[in-house]
Description:
Layout: H1 2-10, H2 14-25, E1 54-57, E2 62-65, E3 70-72, E4 75-77, E5 83-88, E6 91-92, E7 101-103, E8 109-111, E9 125-133, E10 137-140, E11 144-149, E12 154-156, E13 161-164, E14 169-171, E15 174-175, E16 183-187, E17 190-191, E18 198-200, E19 206-208, E20 217-223, E21 230-231, E22 235-240, E23 247-253, E24 258-261, E25 266-268, E26 271-275, E27 279-284, E28 287-288, E29 297-299, E30 305-307, E31 316-323, E32 328-345, E33 350-353, E34 358-360, E35 363-367, E36 371-376, E37 379-380, E38 387-390, E39 394-397, E40 406-413, E41 418-428, E42 443-450, E43 455-460, E44 472-479, E45 486-489, E46 497-500, E47 508-517, E48 520-524, E49 528-531, E50 546-551, E51 554-558, E52 571-578, E53 585-589, E54 593-596, E55 604-613, E56 616-617, E57 624-627, E58 638-644, E59 650-655, H3 659-662, E60 668-675, E61 678-688, E62 693-696, E63 704-713, E64 716-720, E65 724-727, E66 742-749, E67 754-761, E68 770-777, E69 783-788, E70 793-796, E71 804-812, E72 821-826, H4 833-842, E73 858-864, E74 870-875, E75 890-897, E76 906-910, ...
Parallel strand pairs: 2-11, 13-22, 24-32, 33-41, 85-90
Antiparallel strand pairs: 1-4, 3-8, 5-6, 5-9, 7-8, 9-10, 9-11, 12-15, 14-19, 16-17, 16-20, 18-19, 20-21, 20-22, 23-26, 25-30, 27-28, 27-31, 29-30, 31-32, 32-35, 34-39, 36-37, 36-40, 38-39, 40-41, 42-43, 43-46, 44-45, 44-47, 47-48, 47-49, 50-51, 51-54, 52-53, 52-55, 55-56, 55-57, 58-59, 59-62, ...
Amino acid sequence: MAAERGARRLLGTSSFWLYCLLLLGRRAPGAAAARSGSAPQSPGASIRTFTPFYFLVEPVDTLSVRGSSVILNCSAYSEPSPKIEWKKDGTFLNLVSDDRRQLLPDGSLFISNVVHSKHNKPDEGYYQCVATVESLGTIISRTAKLIVAGLPRFTSQPEPSSVYAGNNAILNCEVNADLVPFVRWEQNRQPLLLDDRVIKLPSGMLVISNATEGDGGLYRCVVESGGPPKYSDEAELKVLPDPEVTSDLVFLKQPSPLVRVIGQDVVLPCVASGLPTPTIKWMKNEEALDTESSERLVLLAGGSLEISDVTEDDAGTYFCIADNGNETIEAQAELTVQAQPEFLKQPTNIYAHESMDIVFECEVTGKPTPTVKWVKNGDMVIPSDYFKIVKEHNLQVLGLVKSDEGFYQCIAENDVGNAQAGAQLIILEHAPATTGPLPSAPRDVVASLVSTRFIKLTWRTPASDPHGDNLTYSVFYTKEGIARERVENTSHPGEMQVTIQNLMPATVYIFRVMAQNKHGSGESSAPLRVETQPEVQLPGPAPNLRAYAASPTSITVTWETPVSGNGEIQNYKLYYMEKGTDKEQDVDVSSHSYTINGLKKYTEYSFRVVAYNKHGPGVSTPDVAVRTLSDVPSAAPQNLSLEVRNSKSIMIHWQPPAPATQNGQITGYKIRYRKASRKSDVTETLVSGTQLSQLIEGLDRGTEYNFRVAALTINGTGPATDWLSAETFESDLDETRVPEVPSSLHVRPLVTSIVVSWTPPENQNIVVRGYAIGYGIGSPHAQTIKVDYKQRYYTIENLDPSSHYVITLKAFNNVGEGIPLYESAVTRPHTDTSEVDLFVINAPYTPVPDPTPMMPPVGVQASILSHDTIRITWADNSLPKHQKITDSRYYTVRWKTNIPANTKYKNANATTLSYLVTGLKPNTLYEFSVMVTKGRRSSTWSMTAHGTTFELVPTSPPKDVTVVSKEGKPKTIIVNWQPPSEANGKITGYIIYYSTDVNAEIHDWVIEPVVGNRLTHQIQELTLDTPYYFKIQARNSKGMGPMSEAVQFRTPKADSSDKMPNDQASGSGGKGSRLPDLGSDYKPPMSGSNSPHGSPTSPLDSNMLLVIIVSVGVITIVVVVIIAVFCTRRTTSHQKKKRAACKSVNGSHKYKGNSKDVKPPDLWIHHERLELKPIDKSPDPNPIMTDTPIPRNSQDITPVDNSMDSNIHQRRNSYRGHESEDSMSTLAGRRGMRPKMMMPFDSQPPQQSVRNTPSTDTMPASSSQTCCTDHQDPEGATSSSYLASSQEEDSGQSLPTAHVRPSHPLKSFAVPAIPPPGPPTYDPALPSTPLLSQQALNHHIHSVKTASIGTLGRSRPPMPVVVPSAPEVQETTRMLEDSESSYEPDELTKEMAHLEGLMKDLNAITTA
């Protein structure tokens, strides 16, 4: 009580009043969310960093022979150095006591003498290198296979044969496959020299083509595998003379099916014999192979085909065709190309806390498709309830515990090989709580909804923080009897419910809830034991789901009855969705097939079917994808442009039609052109579908041509572009002389570089091939750089600081260099040492730039294809004229957006002159530039191109949806919301859906459209004491976004006149709700109770603010009543005259008054003589007083500044004043009602300060307007005291307060009469009236917050107080006329006595 009395004594000081207002605007700082993959920063917490730990060298497959030595290389990097061990066939090797095998210092395994026999093979097998760092973890290498060649065994040996001179011969020698590399041939016991005519096939077979007499002799093959050589049988080859007669054509060796790995070489054997001597040709998949011009395809001796560096494209069926002019024979074989596992996405390091869920991503490719397994610290991860393989290859770990920390490796393996990639998981300790109170345990944790596979939990705020607007919550849960706990966090502060998904049926789970504030996590609630429901008998998936395209706009889907129907199938629901979107549509089907029409052309859709029985929906089928048929393009190509190259050629550029209008794969483009003077003579040319430019040559000089382009699909030709004109040059540019001097040269020196920019020569009729830039210290001839003719700037790098450079610029062509232009510049001195240090650390060696750097790409264009895709195209002037890339150069495309400003560039490499940038944000401006790199030479970045992606429908619903009751109007509610976080374009409006049945179909809900970007809306004439549900949907130019979750609101009861209407919506989908039973200790929130961003206030602050509110309310009423009593008892004989004058001035309700029409009555001439001493006799022992003066005119009432105003508009609009009619709606129509003067009182403190500011000429006009309104509408006289706020709302700066018309300060309250004794009565609220439309547009509107009265120390909600209707017009007019008269002393005494009784009534109201 002492604190309250002290607070009341401070109310008279304006500084304390301003300080209290500032308290209301404070917001609690939001808690930063920790993200996986980055270390969350916590004050005072030391963050552990990821430790580099990886293999520098891994063992590879090795072939060896017995008795030889072998080294399996392995080296790992880490700080500290890791311990290296080896596994053979999954078992650790004990190398300490092993004489033959030892560990080398770098970690490699050395086997000194390979042992291998028929029954003892200790060294052959699979080896793995294992690296371990204590207290950090373990990683394992890829698996390497050591193969030991066995004893030589001949499966076929050479046999005696004969061959006609000039024909082909073969000699067989086949050994076990691992010994083939050790085979060689001897002729007459001498090593045989191989050449282009005599070759050895990979199988060991010897092929002799175009045999000669010297080829005759004894042949044998020799195997040398480390031991003594082993010889085959000898066979004699006889060379016979040409008989000059024909013989049958036969294959000596036919190709056989082969399997090779990408990058290997392959030989397809094919040898034929006959007379005449045959020739060999090869075909692949019925296409002839050109072995003469190809670098990778070589025809070997005898006709065998060798393919070097095999790729996937080489796979297929090969045909060997032998032809000798008389007959033709052919043989075929299949070549299968395999690929080792390769990572498309490797696991990344992750930071996490205990109880969290994480996913290590791993994406691999290979042929055959690799299998993936996961290893943690060297041990295999066995899938379980908490370690799951998701999306084929990803590892999901649920409910982390401390022991899960370590290194995880993704190991991919197929028949060809294996590979590994790893990442580190660090479990962070929760940051220590900062200084400050922590929340207590959440109260009343209950399972409000229990299903078979999910449970919905709700709870109340902790006792330590009953408001809980800035609290977040974590729900920890686990299976009963399992120590591993998982966590689910609320989505936003203040939310007090969570739905736990993916649970098991008929299983007991333990739940507990913990609250967090800005200081840290508080106490945990008591464990809650809940058992899920048993699974009901639902239908299984429908088998044999098939979909096929029936036309370009329709798809037919068929399926069969589920095998496990579990009862009669009542109907099916067919779901379908366009690929790339997340909006799924459905249709009810009673049969087993359905045709969906109205689809987009050549668009892929996915389909699934769910069967329904009496228990509900069953198991969904897997998705089936199908694309609608193609059609001719429905739009023309885009961005058609013409570039006149010379007097006889014009280059055409274009972009493909928009993706949505291509209706198929673009197979080509049709270019039509004609002379403008001869429109009937049209020439056509076709180009491929990947070509986006074409040079038209052979044109006439100085002639205008028209061009148009149309796109083609396999279905036909689409619409063409409009005709575009260009005129060839009258004559080509002159190149008989050198260019003239460039017209300007500018330099900008930096520390170690100078930026040079220039403009071309003024004479544009001379060819300029490029520019030569010379520079040096004191002389421009030290170095020279040449750049392209289109370039207008260049940066000279690697210069010395504080040095004087002379720079020269010359234009050149094929004739020579032109006149130079000189400039000098002094580089800046070194001033930033940190930059130098960083440069030294990151680039210890900086090579001197090549004196002839690459020219940057030119003509960079950004073509917008969709909401997330932009195609970048460019030209490279260093390429030949046809722009064909024949060397190893590549291009780097970089792009970024300037929102936010610190966005970093993203890069991608390309080997063509275009690149498709995907994954962009909708409706966002990006800038692009390109550079070219060839070997160690790179160009500078090109000129930037810009492009803004198309808009996309909003992908998130409107947020922070709240529903509040309008003060004094229980049948009217106000819906407030915030724009969607992912608007993806300019919001053009909203749609509000509301219904009394949350489960009703959406087309049965009532719809309220809201045009523009308004964030609030009124709905009238709702039914009392009825729960309503509200959803909001945003729209932009592309369509409607998703709906928000349903928000529940119950309208107040009609007879609950002593309670405030509900002021908080309860959300069924993620919004916090005030519990119906608040308890006797509940106190109304003092600040921001309806906003999740509000700050909690202590009980002392709440009492202090309540004292302020009550004080202002009481003093305002006292002053109003004093003035009202004075005015209503004064009349003059000029009443009619004044009324007539007022009517003549503003009879038409138009705002025409000025300072000369009517002078305002000055009620303040003797205000300093008034004494309020009788008020001190109030029975209240602690009267609430304030010295805040009443303003003199309407401009004294000043709204708060814009920053606070907009802040209040966004977060405190639950207490809006009357709005204009066009923003309100009704279910049952609008009804006319007798206007009543409403003075709503709430528990919110005033949102603006009141100060005295002199005014000049606003007052007369305001007074005049008010006068006339009273005169013409006696029934609604007091309606002028309310002001519609629609105009201020539209400007986004309206205050969430009741508004009054700018007029005389006393008339703001319509001069209420003295209330009669007895309990207060409550009248229904008045519908909104757009009075503001009658005001002059240039008149600044002021708004006043009505007085607020709260209850001290009570738990009952605030009570609205209604001041009775204003006096009749005659009394009002009399007040205006006699306001300048003074009172007699006896009259003043009577009035003060009367006020004393009035104050007793008011004190009774405030203490009730």
